Amino acid sequence: MLLHIPDVLTAKQVAHCRDVMGGAEWVDGSATAGFQSTRVKRNDQLPEGGPAARELGELVLDALGKSPLFASAALPAKVFPPLFNRYAGGQAFGNHVDNAIRQVRGTGQRLRTDISATLFLSSPDEYDGGELVVDDTYGPHSAKLPAGHLVLYPATSLHRVTPVTRGVRLASFFWVQSLVREDAERTLLFDMDLAIIKLRQQVGDSDAVVALTGVYHNLLRRWASV
Question: For the chain, what is the mean pLDDT?
Answer without folding.
Answer: 95
